[in-house]
Write a structure and sequence with these properties.
The protein has 25 helices and 13 strands. The protein is α/β, with parallel strands linked by helices and 581 residues long. Among the domains are: 2-101, Conserved hypothetical protein from pyrococcus furiosus pfu- 392566-001, ParB domain, CATH 3.90.1530.10; 258-312, no CATH class; 339-456, no CATH class; 476-580, no CATH class. The radius of gyration is 40 Å and the shape is flat. The protein starts with a strand and ends with a helix.
């Protein structure tokens, strides 16, 4: 076997792993590994896709949970070779399972002893199959005040707080422990402990705008995280402010009108500023967070200044004072409105054109839209595009727009062009006046059809009144059957389309089987009972299979399967009664 450190994405659980249950119950390991890393290597073997875990599934699952919150270090793994003695490996695993593992404090003491004997952290990591970072983390426990270490070992202190306390001085640790022992004192933990430790400002080294090493400032590293912090916040700010002033001077040398260093912690409100180039007098605003993060906002002026500039650049003469007061104008408007409305009552031709103009262009009192025809699935949208009636509407829209002299970018009630501008109502009315009554009637008919709601109860009544026949627009397709889930409904369709025998033989068949029978009737692999079959749902008025509603013709007799249902009326009283129940 060889020891390797392998990325977690290259590992998977082996089907041969003896642990089948309880592998996901690893909350205890998650806490330990977060603070201390993986102590015992996983046993793995190489596969075509990477490596599979033979032993150590709980440790592996714990690391996967941790990986969801961010990157993890490669995991220590013992890689089995083809000649490895499986019996010896099993014996070794059994021994490890039976004995209790050393806790992290015991490990610290063991590692500390090895360091005193002259061993390097890299050698210790190689010996125990862990990373050098893990060795450093264990050794960091040696910085802890003895009573704190003892309390942690007993489980009285959270591992998260231990990680933070390893960055504290002995004096700070003793002060914190005094708070713990004082029953009436407030004990900071978690983020508040970090704030308390760094005097309310834990400033990451990454935020420094100066050379940290050359500055000589003390830095405290977090061995359990990726950050390092300045030990003295006041000393940091002296250096940081000097660096910020140099940044500001550099911008002014480049030619910016002004560099504004905002107050520490102040927020730069982009909505209260307007973008401006350097040439047009743009400024640079520099924001500094309480944690020392510096952000430069280049090329802005305030909105107030932008308005002043706009006003100064405007040489347009002010509008003349209106001849009428608002009240007088209201008086005139109302009387003119009353006169035009009265005369319009006897001008039906103009009224028709006005109706069309309002539907097309809209007004403060009119807003007519095309139904968006929202589809639940892309497959339904594709099916609708093949519908004969839908294609006819698309073609008519293009004809009507051409008739009105509209270009492609102008919306004609269609929601697909929701962001396109609607035409001017007076221009539309002028165009309509030049058209014949027949043309205007054609336009109104299209507009009404386009503005008819999909879910309106009028659809049923209109279809019945116009004796609409769905066979002229739609024919059965597999997608329709796929969308039906009710086995009773599907069997009723089989009875009508494939015949009584097929339906009786498949009364208890699965929905998939029933759909296959219906699809077979479509593609010709099975002879349908009737070629022009149409489901009740597509009739006008529509029917239902769930409530066993029967189509009844005008003579009161039930039609047989071969009869045309387009001339029948469907009794919906049973449906309504069932719904009410």
């Amino acid at each position: 076997m060889t020891l390797q450190h392998i990325n977690i994405e290259n590992l998977s659980v082996s089907p041969l792993n003896v642990r089948k249950y309880g592998a996901k119950d690893c909350a205890d390991l998650v806490t330990s590994i977060r603070s201390l890393g993986v102590l015992q290597p996983l046993l793995v073997r190489e596969t075509a896709d990477g490596f599979e875990v033979i032993a150590g599934q709980r440790r592996f699952n714990a690391c996967r949970i941790i990986a969801e919150d961010g990157d993890t270090d490669p995991l220590p793994c013992l890689v089995m070779a083809e000649g490895d003695d499986a019996t010896a490996i099993e014996a070794s695993l059994a021994e490890n399972i039976e004995r209790l593992p050393m806790d992290e404090v015991d490990q610290y003491k063991a590692f500390a002893t090895l360091i005193k004997e002259g061993r390097e952290p890299a050698d210790i990591a190689a010996t125990f199959g862990i990373t050098e970072r893990t060795v450093s983390q264990r050794l960091a426990l040696g910085r802890l005040y003895a009573p704190i270490l003892t309390a942690y070992r007993k489980g009285d202190i959270h591992a998260r707080d231990i990680r933070i306390l390893t960055m504290a001085t002995t004096k700070q640790q003793k002060a914190w422990w005094a708070l713990v022992k004082d029953e009436e004192a407030y004990v900071p933990t978690g983020q508040r402990l970090k704030d308390w430790l760094f005097g309310g400002a834990h400033i990451p080294v990454a935020n420094a705008q100066f050379d940290v090493e050359a500055s000589g400032l003390a830095v405290v590293s977090d061995l359990f995280g990726e950050d390092a912090y300045f030990a003295d916040a006041e000393a940091f700010w002296i250096k940081q402010e000097e660096a910020i002033q140099m940044i500001a001077t550099g911008y002014e040398v480049l030619g910016w009108a002004e560099t504004v260093v905002m107050e520490r912690g102040a927020y730069f409100a982009t909505w209260d500023h307007q973008k401006t180039t350097m040439k047009d007098g743009g400024r640079v605003f520099i924001t500094v967070s309480q944690q020392g993060e510096v952000t430069e906002h280049e090329g802005y002026i305030t909105r107030a200044e932008a308005k002043r500039r706009e006003k100064a650049d405007t040489n347009v003469e002010p509008a003349p004072k209106p001849e009428l007061t608002k009240a007088a104008q209201n008086y005139v408007d109302l009387h003119r409105h009353a006169a035009v409305r009265s005369d319009l009552l006897s001008q039906s031709g103009i009224a028709l054109r006005l109706i069309a103009a309002h539907m097309i262009a809209g007004s403060s009192l009119w807003q007519v839209e095309s139904d968006p025809q929202k589809t639940a699935k892309p497959e339904i949208e594709d099916s609708l595009a093949r519908n004969v009636g839908h294609r006819r509407m698309v073609a008519q829209r293009a004809d009507i727009k051409a008739l009105l002299g509209m270009d492609d970018d102008t919306a004609l009630m269609d929601t697909a062009n929701a962001w396109s501008p609607r035409p001017c109502i007076t221009e539309v009315f002028a165009t309509l006046q030049s058209l014949s009554d027949d043309a205007v009637t054609r336009i109104l008919t299209f507009l009404m059809a386009d503005g008819l709601s999909v879910h309106s109860p009028l659809i049923d009544k209109l279809g019945e009144a116009m004796e609409a026949d769905m066979r002229n627009h739609w024919s059965p397709e597999p997608l329709f059957f796929d969308l039906v889930r009710d086995k009773q409904v599907l069997n009723a369709m089989v009875r009508e389309y494939a015949g009584e025998t097929a339906a009786d033989q498949n009364l208890t068949a699965t929905a998939k089987t029933q759909r296959a029978i219906l699809t077979a009737c479509l593609d010709g692999t099975r002879a349908p009972e009737r070629e022009d079959w149409m489901p009740y749902y597509m009739a006008f008025p529509s029917g239902s299979y769930r409530y066993e509603v029967k189509a009844v013709d005008k003579s009161g007799e039930e039609p047989n399967a071969a009869e045309d249902i387009s001339d029948t009326e469907i009794d919906l009283s049973e449906v309504e009664q069932a719904k009410a129940a």
